[in-house]
């Protein structure tokens, strides 16, 4: 049985899946994915993230079976071996690893933390972020910030754009070469900036909207120009390198649109693909996709091992803090329900007792206060031991005890009067958690 309000997650990413499988898993987009998951039985919260090398989804449910059933709708056409699955604690750790860049193709990449923030905002707009995922995702973002501020995890190559340029440098001589960057978004901009640090003679930025391409081109020191995507077939025959990084759902460079060229290196870092894979079958074209960047990024990974170890330590610390906070909250929920219920019973019985005493001759204000103080003391003393037991249960991951307490003291439960455990008894065992903390102080 899962603990109350637990996270369950699945991920299709570069560690097990191909580019095409990642594309297939993320084809619906973040908001549509979150909306679909929220419509599934038992799902209270949902979060999804999609980047160049991952598509992942997380749900919050009270029962593991509900989470498993709901997540079957995510990536149903992707082979089972390409899917990673996470329980509650694993999901929390995985989100921290993603935000810190430990799980990125380019170890420590800077772009991922912004992508996590964007996914958080989109998921929240779709109604998917509640208290459990709020804590989980914001903690992951905090870990990502600490990783970059306190370690060397992001030194050297920090993006797919810069990795693409390093790969191109290894494949062809860029001295005096002409190049085209397709796409003026974040990844295209990073690729253009990385190319600006090489000895290429010209950088052409191609984009659907010319103003965006012009903005990128104008910030480069290398001779540059901006063109619309429709002009690509005209300029590609005269360039040596193409780096494609648009957000288009369909390829923007088809095999038939590229005439025979002397020698062309093409690096496709888009997801979905920007370049028709058939183009790579031609002898005059060397085509590389995200999968091919693994060799390039391995060198960066080796240089960043010390930083990665430091990030692992940060994650261990922050995960322990988050799990402790989660356990306290689960225990406090049950304790709050218990004390609220006891308060309701106490109020009923005190009113009844005071009414009887008033009928027997009246009470002074001091006498009323004495009766009420006695009732408060009884509640505090009787619930002190259960309060400690529930907090101990949380510390020992005894979620069965906490779940039972939540069910017993459910504020919405009202047993019919006259039954064993009548309305007053069920109230007394039902919802009183705020006072538990008072007696525990």
Automatic annotation (TrEMBL):
- Do you know which CDD domains this protein is assigned to? NAD_bind_Glutamyl_tRNA_reduct
Q: Where are stretches of biased composition, namely Basic and acidic residues?
A: 422-441
What family, per the record? Belongs to the glutamyl-tRNA reductase family.
Q: Provide the assembly information.
A: Homodimer.
Active site residues according to the UniProt entry? 52
Q: Which PANTHER family match?
A: GLUTAMYL-TRNA REDUCTASE
Q: What is this protein called?
A: Glutamyl-tRNA reductase
Q: Which InterPro entries match?
A: 4pyrrol_synth_GluRdtase, 4pyrrol_synth_GluRdtase_dimer, 4pyrrol_synth_GluRdtase_N, GluRdtase_CS, GluRdtase_dimer_dom_sf, GluRdtase_N_sf, NAD(P)-bd_dom_sf, Shikm_DH/Glu-tRNA_Rdtase
Q: Which residues form the Quinate/shikimate 5-dehydrogenase/glutamyl-tRNA reductase domain?
A: 167-296
Reactions it catalyzes: (S)-4-amino-5-oxopentanoate + tRNA(Glu) + NADP(+) = L-glutamyl-tRNA(Glu) + NADPH + H(+)
User: Where's the Tetrapyrrole biosynthesis glutamyl-tRNA reductase dimerisation domain?
Assistant: 311-410
What keywords appear on the UniProt entry? NADP, Oxidoreductase, Porphyrin biosynthesis
Name of a matching Pfam family: GlutR_dimer
Annotated ranges, domain Glutamyl-tRNA reductase N-terminal: 10-151
The first-level EC class reads oxidoreductase
Question: Function of this protein?
Answer: Catalyzes the NADPH-dependent reduction of glutamyl-tRNA(Glu) to glutamate 1-semialdehyde (GSA).
The source's domain of life comes to: Archaea
Q: Where does the sequence pass through the membrane?
A: none
Residues the record lists as binding substrate: 51-54, 104, 109-111, 115
Domain notes, please?
Possesses an unusual extended V-shaped dimeric structure with each monomer consisting of three distinct domains arranged along a curved 'spinal' alpha-helix. The N-terminal catalytic domain specifically recognizes the glutamate moiety of the substrate. The second domain is the NADPH-binding domain, and the third C-terminal domain is responsible for dimerization.
Please list the GO biological process terms of this entry: protoporphyrinogen IX biosynthetic process from glutamate
Indicate which residues the UniProt annotation says bind NADP(+). Answer: 183-188
């Amino acid at each position: 049985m899962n603990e109350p309000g637990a996270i369950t997650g699945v991920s299709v990413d570069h560690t097990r899946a191909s580019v095409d499988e990642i594309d297939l898993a993320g084809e619906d987009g973040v908001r549509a994915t979150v909306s679909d998951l929220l419509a599934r039985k038992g799902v209270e919260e949902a979060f999804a993230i999609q980047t160049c090398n991952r598509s992942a989804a997380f749900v919050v449910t009270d029962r593991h079976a509900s989470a498993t059933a709901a997540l079957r709708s995510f990536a149903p056409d992707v082979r089972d071996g390409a899917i990673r699955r996470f329980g509650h604690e694993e999901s929390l750790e995985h989100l921290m690893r993603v935000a810190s860049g430990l799980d990125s193709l380019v170890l420590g990449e800077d772009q991922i933390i912004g992508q996590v923030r964007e996914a958080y905002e989109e998921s929240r707009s779709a109604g998917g972020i509640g208290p459990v995922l709020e804590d989980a995702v914001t903690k992951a973002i905090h870990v990502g910030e600490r990783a970059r501020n306190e370690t060397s995890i992001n030194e050297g190559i920090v993006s797919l754009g810069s990795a693409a340029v390093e790969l191109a440098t290894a494949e062809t001589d860029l001295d005096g070469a002409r190049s085209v960057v397709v796409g003026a978004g974040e990844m295209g901009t990073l690729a253009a900036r990385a190319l600006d640090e090489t000895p290429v003679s010209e950088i052409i930025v191609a984009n659907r909207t010319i103003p965006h391409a012009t903005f990128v081109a104008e910030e480069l020191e290398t001779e540059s120009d901006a063109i619309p995507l429709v002009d690509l077939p005209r300029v590609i025959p005269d360039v040596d390198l193409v780096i494609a990084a648009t957000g288009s759902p369909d390829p923007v460079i088809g095999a038939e649109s590229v005439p025979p060229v002397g020698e062309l290196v093409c690096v496709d870092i888009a997801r979905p693909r920007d370049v028709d894979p058939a183009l790579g079958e031609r002898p005059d074209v060397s085509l590389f996709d995200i999968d091919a960047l693994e060799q390039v990024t391995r060198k960066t990974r080796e240089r960043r091992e010390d930083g990665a170890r430091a990030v692992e330590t940060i994650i261990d610390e922050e995960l322990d803090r988050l799990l402790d906070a989660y356990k306290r909250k689960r225990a406090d929920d049950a304790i709050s329900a218990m004390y609220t219920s006891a308060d309701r019973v106490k109020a009923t019985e005190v009113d009844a007792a005071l009414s009887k005493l008033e009928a027997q001759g009246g009470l002074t204000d001091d006498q009323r206060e004495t009766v009420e103080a006695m009732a408060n003391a009884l509640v505090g003393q009787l619930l002190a031991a259960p309060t400690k037991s529930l907090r101990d249960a949380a510390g020992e991951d005894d979620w069965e005890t906490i779940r039972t307490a939540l069910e017993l003291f459910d504020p919405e439960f009202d047993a019919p009067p006259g039954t064993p455990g009548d309305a007053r008894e069920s109230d007394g065992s039902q919802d009183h958690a705020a006072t538990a903390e008072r007696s525990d102080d």
